[in-house]
Amino acid sequence: MKKISYIILIFSMIVVSCKPKEENNNLQTPDALQNEYSSLKRMKGDLTEDLYQGLVDKDSLLRNLEEEIIAFRSGSIEVTKVFHNYLDKSDRYYGSVNDKVKGIKDSLLMKKMQMLITMHKKAQEVRTTEINALLKTIPANDTILNDHHAALKIVKTLTVMEKYQKEHLPNKSELKKLIRQQEKIIQQMNDLMR
């Protein structure tokens, strides 16, 4: 029992002593990549977003772009809402008058009203053709905007991550040393079991 406790103690000391050396690069390393960065935030957050936000905080061009995107998105909702409301009222109106026409008992008058409604509806469709085309363009452009925004985040953060990977690559000799120590302890255990 003493020997096993002794081996566990030695193994624990080895693991603790093999902790990688911290470099003094914390000033240049983004918060999201520093060891002190909250592990809870890392588990719940998106590292790409965290790295990109760090870049936005330091780069006025990126900050201005992000502010413009936010302003654009809220403004576009307000602008398109006006047109959607307008088109919706027209659609609701034509649904309502068609219901009224169905209640007319005089078949000749009913046909006259149906023709009148159809004529007005077609005129409205002609008047709103361009509006409908423009409204269809907006979601397509939103998709492109979102794709480019994601690509921008990837491009900008790849260089940050690559720099981190190159500058903070742990020394593999520590792993090799750990493996040799493990093998030595395993051999000691094997020798004690004979």
Structural commentary:
- With 194 residues, the protein is an all-alpha fold.
- The protein is 81% helix and 0% strand.
- The chain is built from seven helices and no strands.
- The longest helix has 43 residues, at 60-102.
- The chain is elongated, with a radius of gyration of 34 Å.
- The model is unreliable at 1-27 (pLDDT under 50).
* Number of helices, counting only DSSP H or I runs of 4 residues or more: 7
Helix content: over 70%
Rg, nearest Å: 34 Å
End-to-end span in angstroms?
Answer: 16 Å
Q: Helix and strand string, N-terminal first?
A: HHHHHHH
Q: Structural class of the secondary structure composition? A: mainly alpha
Low-pLDDT stretches: 1-27
The average pLDDT value, as a whole number, equals 85
Biggest beta sheet attributes: none
Please provide the count of β strands: 0
Beta-strand share of residues = under 5%
Shape: elongated
